[in-house]
Amino acid sequence: MKTQNVLTESESMFREENLKTVLDYFYEFEAKQPNAPFLRQPYGSEWKSMSWAEAGDQARRMAAALRDLGLAPGDKVGIFSKNCYHWIIADLAIMMGGFVSTPFYPNLTADQLREVLALSDAKALFVGKLEEWEQQKPGVPEDLSIIRFPHYPGNSEVGEGLDWDELTGRHEPLSDPAQPGLHDLWTILFTSGTTGSPKGVMHTYFAPAALLYNEQVHNNLKVFEGTEHRYFSYLPLNHIAERVIVELAAIMTGGTIYFAESIDTFAQNLQEASPTLFMAVPRIWSKFQLGILERLPQKRLELLLKIPLVSSLIKTKIQKGLGLRDARIMLTGAAPTPDALKEWFQKLGLTLQEVYAMTENCGGCTLMPRDAVRSGTVGKPLPNVELRIDPDSGEVLMKAPWVMTGYYKQPEQTAETLRDGWLHTGDKGELTPEGYLRLTGRVSDTFKSAKGKYIVPAPLEWGFAKNTFIEQICVVGLALPQPIALVVLSELGKRAPREEVRESLARSLAEVNAGRSRFEQLKQLVVVNEPWTVDNGLLTPTMKIRRAVMHEFYQDKYESWIAREEVVVWEG
């Protein structure tokens, strides 16, 4: 089964004369509104603002410095930093110099950093706003040129390499900045390595140009509507979603990017930025929900929402408290968002639109229509996206003009992922008669129980979304008679009496198991002691669970757990 009326306009719509690179848009707005605020960085209670002209001047000076270091057009330049305005300027400098950006997750360990630096062939590395530079810097080869951002208070002091301010101070702005072609390599984005070593996804300038031009023409998300465009940048900028929907969208709309200073100031920074577009992963939306419920318990909230005048006041207060009172577009993605969570926010007047995409398709695949939400799905294909389901494996396959050119220096993995023009997503799914995509799990996550039956974890895990005592959940059970679910409690769950938590989890377990085949029913829930984090290796830098690592971490305890009769047990 596949969608209809797709790709018919691609040849005419995506001709080169219709498209402009992100750098073309930057030059355009730099000339059109040189003094308008482009980047806003918080320092405590103060915001430092950088105009389009100032950002352009800094970027040209840094591009000149990179050339002076001996870098040649096409050389790879890494960025290793949390989000900040120097990150954006460094990215612009790399483009203006004719180089290729290879940004990395700022929470990589030394070993992980060493691996991606080697895979990327980086000739220089920007090092910036980091929390654990002392532990990470052994991953940087001694002969690699480092350029350090100015220090951001509250973060690691970086003493290595060349100083940003010194370099920009002694170099004149580049007089001949690059004018990259649409089919020149723009960036290499490394996947987070959920199932093995990271792969470097190559995108030319054509990919984001085509994707965002597709949005301009069809107005699915309405990114280009309105006169004010404010963006809040806090998800890693090397992730394709943040890169396209924040950095590139801001440049292409002439908008302003606000940054978060730290986790502690996140809420305040978001309130002050009051973005017109806001994107978050499900875990962030869940934390917002738990924060609201800590102040206003569910039963009282439901009561207040039933009173017309009070309901309006409560919604306005919550939206303002979150910093989303001006948000025209609110997105959720990176992992399927439980319907219960989206419905909960909808009652508060906040419509979360699901986005399903991946690095390999430049962040563009499906979008939930704002006025035609379908529960249990991740939306409909964007215009000029073609979807079909592999009849044998159930895998979701897609085509679009903005799919990657391949994995950097990995022809075998490229050939495995791109077959006959189709991108193999690794996700399993179904297409509804209306053309919506319903995800049913990951191909690689499926495991076989001791009974020889295949278990698909994701649908089981999604069934626990309504339980606010749960923050993280992972279904395991390779070679066990029945699968079990490991649970990390939320702050609400940790503070609640154990018996109350036990009863709540047991009810959720019964609801999830109801109507399922015997072989896929969960035997029990196990409340584990240790949260799953990037530091202990159980999560990827994008906060996805490493299922293979999870299995190795807990497998020695499986037998003792399943030998117990209780349906909810604590790790001990």
What secondary-structure arrangement, pairings included, does this model have?
Elements: H1 10-13, H2 22-32, E1 37-43, E2 46-51, H3 52-68, E3 76-80, H4 85-96, E4 100-104, H5 110-120, E5 122-127, H6 133-136, E6 145-148, E7 162-163, H7 164-170, E8 185-190, E9 200-204, H8 206-218, E10 230-233, H9 240-253, E11 256-259, H10 266-273, E12 277-280, H11 282-295, H12 298-305, H13 308-322, E13 329-332, H14 339-346, E14 353-356, E15 366-367, E16 380-381, E17 386-389, E18 395-399, E19 406-407, H15 411-417, E20 418-419, E21 422-431, E22 437-442, E23 447-448, E24 454-455, H16 457-462, E25 470-476, E26 484-489, H17 491-495, H18 498-513, E27 525-527, H19 547-562, E28 568-570
Parallel strand pairs: 1-11, 3-4, 3-5, 5-6, 6-7, 10-11, 12-13, 13-14, 26-27, 27-28
Antiparallel strand pairs: 1-2, 8-9, 9-19, 14-15, 15-16, 17-18, 18-21, 20-21, 21-22, 23-24, 25-26
Helix pairs in contact: 2-9, 3-4, 3-7
Overall description:
- There is one protein chain.
- The protein is an alpha/beta fold and 572 residues long.
- It has a domain at 446-570: 2-Layer Sandwich (GMP Synthetase, Chain A, domain 3).
- The strands form seven sheets. It has a five-stranded parallel beta sheet with strand order 4-3-5-6-7, sandwiched between helices. It has a five-stranded mixed beta sheet with strand order 12-13-14-15-16.
Based on helices, strands and strand pairing, what is the structural class? alpha/beta
Q: How does the major sheet shape up?
A: 5 strands, parallel
Please give the alpha-carbon distance between the first and last residues.
Answer: 49 Å
Task: Please tell me what the overall shape is.
Answer: globular
> Which whole number gives the mean pLDDT?
90
The DSSP helix count reads: 19
Q: Which strand-content bin applies to the residues?
A: 15-25%
CATH class of the domain at 446-570: Alpha Beta
Q: Can you count the beta strands?
A: 28
Low-confidence blocks of residues: 1-7
CATH fold node name of the domain at 446-570: GMP Synthetase, Chain A, domain 3
State the helical fraction.
25-40%
- Reading side by side through the largest sheet, how are the strands ordered? 4-3-5-6-7
Based on the coordinates given, report the CATH architecture of the domain at 446-570.
2-Layer Sandwich
Radius of gyration: 24 Å
CATH superfamily placement of the domain at 446-570:
ANL, C-terminal domain
